[in-house]
């Protein structure tokens, strides 16, 4: 490990960045250095611009990967190397305004019914029933389920923040049936060994297999269930502020995307075609 990489990792840890984020940032910086065959200390704004053009025009990467690269380089040059030109010369890519895929309630039911393994089905039901991210599901412990208060505590979610989410009676019954069969401890959903949680990648594969068996035509990932949770809550009358707290969003802007996905209000609007008379 180079001294620069070591210093960057220390700076990230001091600021309490998540281990996954530290790995992503350092890997992206390593790719940048490898592209030029030089240490980032010897590179500057012109090389960064050349690299961004390469990522966009030659590799055609998504805006997510582009902006992760920007975040990594901004941290390296702005924090670790203390350069004062980083903000001006490392611009973010404009985010695509795509709406998330959302399943109907019947489609969610089909997805669950396609999973015979109780443990796997329970994990998918927790993701949908609590609106959790993939890593939040896999990192749950048995004692995070508080049946006396009917809440689930999500520890160190995105941004290293804890939060409570509601626990529905239907999900509690499902969890109790699962616990009686498997008796997990301490992790609610252990991996190959009881002392380690299941990996997010494994849960993602479980969801992909369920989607294939259910023969749903829509693209479905584990995160799709979180989108379904939010959209179905809005359609059931949950206010946006409450939903923001449950989802653990930093700002209301992120939560408001579901207003564009929910069809409850859209269906109320009458088409001008329906107002025309005597069309036949």
Task: Please tell me about this protein's structure.
- Helix 2 packs across helix 4 and helix 6 packs across helix 10 (200-214).
- The protein has 15 helices and three strands.
- The longest helix is centred in the N-terminal third of the chain and has 18 residues, at 19-36.
- The protein has two domains: 3-89, Tyrosine recombinase, N-terminal domain (DNA polymerase, domain 1, Orthogonal Bundle), CATH 1.10.150.130; 105-265, hpI Integrase, Chain A (Orthogonal Bundle).
- It has 280 residues and is mainly alpha-helical.
- The protein has helices at residues 3-14, 19-36, 45-58, 63-80, 86-89, 105-113, 118-130, 134-138, 169-182, 200-214, 222-235, 240-247, 252-255, 264-268, 272-275, and strands at 145-146, 151-154, 163-166.
- The protein is globular, with a radius of gyration of 23 Å.
- Strands 1-2-3 form a three-stranded antiparallel β-sheet.
- The model has no long low-confidence stretch (mean pLDDT 90).
Topology of helices and strands:
Blueprint: H1 3-14, H2 19-36, H3 45-58, H4 63-80, H5 86-89, H6 105-113, H7 118-130, H8 134-138, E1 145-146, E2 151-154, E3 163-166, H9 169-182, H10 200-214, H11 222-235, H12 240-247, H13 252-255, H14 264-268, H15 272-275
